[in-house]
Amino acid sequence: MRAALWLLALFGVAVAVALIAGNNQAVVTVFWPPHRVDVSFNLMVLLLAGFFVVLYLALRALSALFSLPAEALRWRALQKERAMYGALMDALAHLLAGRYIRATKSAQNALAQEKSLDQLAEQAGHATGYSASRGSQLRALAHLLVAESAQSLQDRPVRDAHLQLALQSAAPRHAQEVREGVQFRAARWSLEDRDAQGALDWLAQLPQGAARRTLALRMRLRAARQARQTTQALETARLLAKHRAFSQGAAESIVRGLALELLGNAHDPAQLQQAWMSLDDSERAMPELVVHAAARLMALHGDPDTARGWLLSVWDQVMAPQSTMGDNLRIKLIGVLELGLDTLDAAWLARIESAQLNRPRDANLQYLAGMACLNRQLWGKARQLLSQAAPALQDVTLHRNAWRALALLAEQREDEPAAALAYKRAAEL
Hints:
The protein is an all-alpha fold. About 75% of the residues lie in helices and about 5% in strands.
C-alpha cells in the first residue's frame, strides 16, 4: 500500500513539473560586465539543484574524512568490548562446568579487557560509546566469578580479596543490584564454611527491602539454626510461612520443631513460661507443643496446676474416640499427668474417668485411671484397671510402672507370691 502511494505521488510530481516547465517561457539574465548571459528558467533551476547536490556530497565526504580517526577508535573499543563480554561468558561457562581454574583465568582476562577499555574511554572521552556504569557492573561480576571459583577451590585469601574488590566495584548507586547479589553470595559462602555469625552479619548489611526477600529469609533461617539462635530462627520461619515459601505441612513442621527446641532450651519455670508466652496462638494450640511444654514444666519442678492448665486446651482433642493423634503423644501426656497425680482435683479425675470409659480398650488410659485410683487409695479398682492394662501396654516405662504398682498392691494385701511375680515382670522389662 505504501509503495502504491509513493508511485502515485511520483506521478503527481511528474505531471506538475511537466505542466509548469513545459510551457515556461521565462528567461534568466545574468549580467557579468561586460558580458550578458541569457539562460532559460528551467535550466537555471536544474543548475542550482545540481550545485546544491554537489555541495552536499562534498560536505559529506569531508565529514567522513575527518571522522575516520574517531571511527577507528570506536571500532577498536567495540572489538575490546566484544572480547571483554566473550571472556566473561567463558568464565561463567567454565564455572558452571566445574573448571574453576579456567573460569578464574577467563574472568581475569575480562578484567584486563575492561581496564584497557576504560583507559581508552578516558583518552577519547565519549567517542567510544563505553558506559562507566556498565563497566562497574562488569568488574563486580568478574570479581565475583573469581571469588566463586576460589571458594570452590577453598582458596579463602583469594576469595576474600576479590570479594572486597567486587563490593568496591558495586559501590555506585547504579550497581546496587549487583552489590546485593555479592552480599548474598558472601552470606552463602559463610554458611558453607559453617560460619553462622558471619552469614548473619552479611545479611544484616542488606537494605531493608532485600533483607525481606525469600532468599534472604531462607539463608537467615539456616544461619540462625546453625548459630543456635532459636528465637530468631522461629521468627524467620514464621515470615517464610507467611510468604508461602514452604508448603503448609512443611511450614508447620519447621515452626513446630523450632518451637520445641525453644521450649527445650528453657532451664527454669520462669524462662519456660516466658518462652511459652512468646509463641503465637496457633502454635500454642498445637498438641505436640502443649504436651511438650507441660512435660518440660513438670521436669523443671514447676507448678503442676499451670501444666494441667496448658493440657486442658488439648485434652479433649487428644483423648477423643476418633482422635488421629499418635500413641506417643498420648503416652507423653499420660506421663505428664502421672507426675502430678497427688495434686489432681476432682475435675481432672472426672476427665480421666470419662476418657477411660469412652475408650475402654485403651491400655494407656486404663493405666492412668488405675494410677489415679492407686493414688486415692482405691485399691480394688486400681488393681482391676492395672491388671487389665499391664499385659497390653506397649511403652516400656508405663509397662514397668504398671507391674511395680501391682507389686505394691500385692504387698499391701500381703500376697507375697503375686508381689514377687510382679517385681519379676518389672525387672524383666
